[in-house]
Amino acid sequence: MNFTESETFSLGRLRDTLIRLEDTIIFALIERAQFHLNESIYHKNALQFNGATGDRSFLEYFLWETEKVHAKVRRYSSPDEYAFTSPLPDPILPPLQYPEFLAPNKVNINDKIMDVYVHHLVNSICPPGDDSNYGSAATKDIECLQALSRRIHYGKFIAESKFRSNPEEYTRLALANDTKGIDELLTNKEVEIKLLQRLRRKALVYGQTLDQEDAGTSTHLKIPVDAVVDLYERWVIPLTKVVEIEYLLERGLAWHAQRQVQSENQK
Ligand SMILES: C=C(O[C@@H]1C=C(C(=O)O)C=C[C@H]1O)C(=O)O
Question: In what residue span(s) does the Chorismate mutase domain sit (predicted)?
Answer without folding.
Answer: 137-244
